[in-house]
Amino acid sequence: MKNIKSLIKGECANFDYENNFCLPKDQLCCFYIGDERTPRCKYFEKGVLPLEPALENQYCLDRDMSFNTDMKKCEKCGNYIAVNSNNQKYCDNCKIDIRKKKNRERVQKQRCL
Questions:
Q1: pLDDT band at 37 (very low <50, low <70, confident <90, very high)
Q2: pLDDT band of 67, cuts 50, 70, 90
Q3: What is the DSSP string of the chain?
Q4: How many Å apart are CA 104 and CA 72, to the nearest integer?
Q5: Is 61 buried (19+), middle (13-18) or exposed (0-12) by CB count in 10 A?
Q6: Contact 55, 49 (CB under 8 A)
Q7: How far apart are CA 62 and CA 28, in angstroms?
Q8: What is the mean pLDDT of residues 60-87?
Q9: Nearest to 92 by CA among 54, 64, 42, 43
Q10: What is the largest CA-CA distance in the chain?
Q11: Is residue 49 within 8 Å of residue 59, measured between CB atoms?
């Protein structure tokens, strides 16, 4: 929820920073009401949320909605990532770690032979 609020503050054109208001509805933003299960905001879901694909998928999973099929779960850390090919298994941070680990193992094997 914290990530959603920061995304709203940074990107939502309908959000009033001073009062946490939704300008078109002229009431408190539905994400700042404090309810555990807040009502849906169509502008946020279609216009702002797609800017963060991983957050979008988590939001959709929490609300039992269908989400983008171009997303996969990272096999190492479990975060959702936007996949570019069918072979992609890891997010960018984990991919670097896995590459270093495999390189280290390969070099150690070479040195022992």
A1: low
A2: low
A3: -HHHHHHHHHH-TTEETTTTEETTTTEE-GGGS--SSPPP-HHIIIIIGGGSHHHHHHHHHHTT----TTEEE-TTT--EEE-SSTT--S-HHHHHHHHHHHHHHHHHHHHH-
A4: 27
A5: exposed
A6: yes
A7: 22
A8: 77
A9: 54
A10: 72
A11: yes
Count CB-CB contacts under 10 A for residue 59. 20
Q: What is the pTM of this model?
A: 0.52
Which pLDDT belongs to residue 13? Answer: 85
Q: Tokens 């009431």 identify what position?
A: 27
User: What is the Cα–Cα distance from 98 to 19, expressed in whole angstroms?
Assistant: 46
Give helix 53-62 / helix 2-11 axis angle, nearest 10°: 130
> What six digits make up the tokens of 60?
């959709």
Give pLDDT, residue 93: 92
- Between the alpha carbon of residue 42 and those of residues 47, 67, 113, the distances in Å are 8, 15, 61
